[in-house]
Amino acid sequence: MDATQTIAKTRTLLRARGIGKTVKSGAEDLVILRDISLDVSAGEAVAIVGASGSGKSTLLAILAGLDTPTAGTVELDGADLFALDEDARAVLRGRAIGFVFQSFQLLPALTALENVMLPLELAGRGDAEREARAMLARVGLAARLGHYPKHLSGGEQQRVALARAFVVRPKLLLADEPTGSLDTESGATVIELLFELNRGYGTTLVMVTHDEALASRCARIVRLAAGRIVG
Amino acid sequence: MILRQAWRMLARDWRAGELGVLAAALAVAVASVTSVAFFADRVSRALVRDAHQLLGADLVLVSDHPWSPAIAEEIPRRGLAAARAMSFVSMVFAGESSHLAGVKAVSENYPLRGRLRIAPAPGAPDAPAEGGPRRGTVWIEERLVSALDAPVGSRLRLGEATFEVAAVLTLEPERGANFFNIAPRLFMHIEDVASTGLIRTGSRVWYTLYAAGPRAQVDAFEAWARQRLERGQRVDNLESGRPEVRAAIERAERFLGLTALLAAILAGVAISLATRRFVERHLDGCAVMRCLGATQRRLLALYGTEFVLLGAIAAAVGCLAGVAAQGAIAAALAEMLRAELPPPAALPAVQGFLVGLVLLLGFALPPLVQLKNVPALRVMRREAGRPKGGALAVYGAGLAALAGLLFWQAGDAKLGAIVVLGFGAAVAAFTAIAWALLRLLASGAVARRVAALAAMRSGPAASALRYGLANLRRHARANAAQVASLALGLTVLLLLTFTRNDLVDAWRRSAPPDAPNRFVIGVQPDQLEAVKRHFAEHGIGAPEFYPMVRGRLVAVNGRPVSESDFEGERARRLVEREFNLSYVERLPSHNAIAAGRWFAPSSPGHPRELSVEEGIAKTLGWQLGDELTFRVGADAFSARITSLRRLRWDSMKVNFFVIAPPALLAEFPASHIAAFRIEPGGEKALDALVARFPNVTVVDVAAAVRQAQAVVDQVIVAVQVVFLFALGAGLLVLYSALAATEDERRREAALMRVCGASRAQVTGIQRVEFLAMGLLAGLLATGGAAAIGQLLARRVFELDLPPSPWLLVAGPLAGLALLAFNAWISARKVLAAAPAATLRDSV
Ligand SMILES: Nc1ncnc2c1ncn2[C@@H]1O[C@H](COP(=O)(O)OP(=O)(O)O)[C@@H](O)[C@H]1O
Ligand SMILES: [Mg+2]
């Protein structure tokens, strides 16, 4: 056990090689990403920054196996994502990846507690409710368990989303502009929480943002411009 | 584990109000199918039982010579109830007067099914009797009481024995409606027959055995007995004895079943619409779940299980509602029929339950399957993963499921196919027409013209019109589906409010409470004027007298007729009797020409034409143009069939199978017959009539009329209840059709307000869109309702009913009103919320 953990600490968790994404847009091909290679070690925090439209979200979707690249490979923990089919990728996601989105993506019909329980339930965990309660308490929402998303503020919704992402103890957390829909103050709260949880669970973090201040809190910054890595 | 989670999802979706319409539609469908199945089952068993009452037993064996003990004893040996009767015609004497009577001597337990009804005096209220007359007593019909002046308590002589008149016989169910041919009835005990000394060799006597018991045993005995029949013996069961009753039961059953299925189909449409809405609202959730690691199989299993759980619960609720509904109907009917319906059987509940599941799987699963195809990418790009597949494909799958269901339930592939194809065609036609019209309405040319108009009259109204029409085109596909669904729901509502009332009225008219309850027969031509005067003097009204000539059919198209030419016992019995022929100049008001044309106005010479009742023509295989030859006394005449008439036998009016023009029959000896109504207490006038014209006979058919009315009432109640379920299903369709685009409209309205549109502009635009759709749906529904109403009237009810002119006004108005109301509601909802809230909800 100890030995494998030591190895895991130093090895590469996410490895992207030669990622390209081209879509048909009318008669022409539109190149969104070209030849992107990126290694993320276990426990590392990486920020992807760039102007709007530079391809950050597309890259993140491909790293998560949500979207397929037109060229290149992605390996997560040694497994080639695109050698797997969608369903197998889904299983892998459920086990290893947590998401935080700009638009929260909470299920409106579920309470805060139920939203956090959802990934545990999908994984067939019997202790879903206890775990979810504990996680919501950690993000400071112990009093809002029974509330529906529409009755929560944006910052509170994003904290529920954080709880949902961390409750499965993912190896990798992918965040797409997690503060993009929030005012400065609640954005700051969410970010503090995010880094705190990330440290606490030793999660690897890949975060897309156009906020330089936020990016600078990550150990490494990858800059994207017009679909290329520029530094 | 899937089950537990699906159960949790069900609870959450239910709490969020996502499943209400779905569950309601399912419950309504199951309730309607169950209650109808229950009801049809019980009513048809009651009707069959009633019909057996008309037979007096489940099985009747008739012979012109005594039955061998081997057969008579076989009935009780097989554990069946048995009764015996002997029938013969004899003179009856009371003091100075005498009269011919149709004597029926019965064993104690006669009849095995149903009851004779008797009264203590003519015109007094009657009541069902326990069995037949006791030994030494007789029951006689009213006409015999007056003919012999033999009231209850007096004595009369039959052969060598005398009997006490113990009661007035008011109803002998077995006798049916054939009053003219038989002498007035006298019932006596079968053990008393020997003492009269009337039965000698050569006397014409019918010996009847009755059997009743469990269906299977009766059938087995029937098969056994048929093997052993001798010449002059026959077996009557419901099929051969009262074929018209059997047919009526079957038609009623089929009609009820089809109406229930109509409700089920509508519920299916509501389910389909509600599921589509469910799917659209769950796309994001599914994408998130895909992100969180749910596989496609997992999603499908979860949602499938959730829906099956929902289906099972809703179907169970529907079953309970169905049982309760039919219990209420049965209670109401029992009062009306003064008889209890047989207890319900369990099968209908199972049937209803399965129908619910099939509906759910057929109509909800196809759209539901789309959920599993949602790409996880949708969490990042909202445009990704809109559900595909048009409404038609979805209806197609549901209809296929229903078709299977129909074949199973109706047991009639042709009928089922007609309903399914007809319904599918209606949906397709509604959608296609709506789509084409919406496109046209908003097409370049029209839009430009409208734009020009709008430019001329600038102002909020003009711009609302322009944007509203533009919206119509933009949503042409979705709107067409919505208009088609609305039209479907409206069709049902219109059918309910118009056609059903017309149908029920027409139906009820056929056996009105003031229907004739007496027939007067045997009025000779030279007595006619005096009899009419007698009626007028006693305030009985002026019934229409029809001349009646009795003739025997001897040849068809020149070929001599013998009994064996005809297939089926009914046909044989019809030709072996004499026909009552009548002649009139004009078509009687309660008859309608079904084919051919009525007699040409009194042409010179002898017009050799006949008008024949549709049903008997079918039974005997006659067609327009066939030449029939009848013998009347020593003479004969031939004539061609030039028209077929449709008439209502349950109207209790005077009806004839065969009518000729006066010039053809006027030479033959005729007597006259009329039907009329006498209110209770007016019977004195009849005694006076019979005293004055001793050869004239008055027949009391009040009990038979009551029986006919009870059956009509029963069927009407059943039809109303089933229509009520169809109404519920129609309303659900309307509701879910309107809800289908509500989310999107709300979002659009919010966006428009963000872009600076005033409330008036937003509502104005929606109003234009809604009103155009309402008008369209109303027009389509009007057409649909008129067409279906006609089809129902003609094919099912066999009535001629022109569509009500009000329908043409009310249909489009209903469409407009409905969508105007919806526009109002929707405007309130949209405007009540701040745009930001609506938009935030929807991201
Ligand atoms: N499926 C697609 N079809 C067409 N264009 C796309 C598609 N996906 C992304 N794009 C385009 O690619 C560019 C990059 O998008 P995105 O990755 O969302 O950028 P960012 O997140 O950096 O703002 C944008 O111009 C976007 O319009
Ligand atoms: Mg982005």
Characterization of the model:
The complex is a heterodimer of chains A (231) and B (843). Chain A contains 8 helices and 10 strands. Chain A is an alpha/beta fold and 231 residues long. In chain A, the strands form 2 sheets. In chain A, strands 6-7-8-3-9-10 form a 6-stranded mixed sheet. Chain A has a 4-stranded antiparallel sheet with strand order 2-1-4-5. The termini of chain A are far apart. In chain B, 44% of the residues are buried. Chain B is elongated, with a radius of gyration of 34 Å. The A-B interface holds A 57, 60-61, 64, 66-67, 86-87, 90-95, 99, 101, 103, 105-110, 114, 118-119, 121-124, 150, 164, 168, 176 and B 1, 5, 8, 12-13, 15-16, 18, 284-285, 287-298, 375-377, 379-381, 840-841, 843. Bound molecules: adenosine-5'-diphosphate and magnesium ion.
The number of strands of chain B is 22
Q: Which bin fits the share of residues in helices of chain A?
A: 25-40%
Oligomeric composition of the shown chains? heterodimer
| Overall SS class of chain A | alpha/beta
Q: Whole-number average pLDDT of chain B?
A: 77
Q: N- to C-terminal separation of chain B? A: 31 Å
Mean pLDDT of chain A: 88
Q: Biggest sheet of chain B: strands, sense, closure?
A: 11 strands, mixed
* Widest sheet: strand ordering of chain A: 6-7-8-3-9-10
Q: Low-confidence stretches of chain A at least 5 residues in length (pLDDT < 50)?
A: 1-8
| Fraction in beta strands of chain B | 15-25%
Structural class of chain B comes to alpha+beta
Uncertain segments of chain B are 176-181
> Could you tell me the radius of gyration of chain B in angstroms?
34 Å
**Order of H and E elements of chain A:** HEEEHEEHEHHHEHEHEE
Sheet having the most strands of chain A: 6 strands, mixed
| Overall outline of chain B | elongated
Give the largest interface.
Answer: A-B, 34 and 31 residues
Number of helices of chain A: 8
